[in-house]
Amino acid sequence: MAVIKIRNTGEIIKGHENVLSFLEKQGVLYEHWDISKLPDRLKEKFVLTDEEKEEILTIFKEEIEDLAARRGYKTWDVVALSDATPNLDELLKKFEQVHVHTEDEVRAITAGHGIFIIKGDKETGYFDVELEAGDVISVPEGNPHFFTLMEDRQVVAVRLFIDPSGWVAHPYEEKEEVIK
Ligand SMILES: [Fe+2]
Fold it and tell me: At which positions is Ni(2+) bound (predicted)?
């Protein structure tokens, strides 16, 4: 289950209902998929063949189509990041800059971990959402955020788009002290 850390106050929010209600207030969609549907060999595999990516999409076909129908997503794929990814450090440097997109950023984690750092309302400021396998998140269109990996430095996620061109990152100027 996801864990929230509010950067200003150090407050930690745990437990499905608490996380759900906090994210709901911030306009961030949060859901959970049953990760036990995934065969064990795909739970700890971070270099995937095209066939394995297709297999993941087939296993979660119902969940993907349900989410897509509710939210208007039209296309989806699987992304895998790990130390085996060429230029992982360079990619992370890019991901770690605050930015916005012209559509939702939707990620369903199927293995490993990831953190979205999202700009909340005025009172809350930036908060971390630490995600594990089964967690599904949608960062709203135009909402400043950035992404990074956790200590395990590996993740597999299903991405859903209205149009993949919407994922182009537009830099968002923020004072450093607001983010930290
Ligand atoms: Fe993003």
Answer: 99, 101, 105, 145
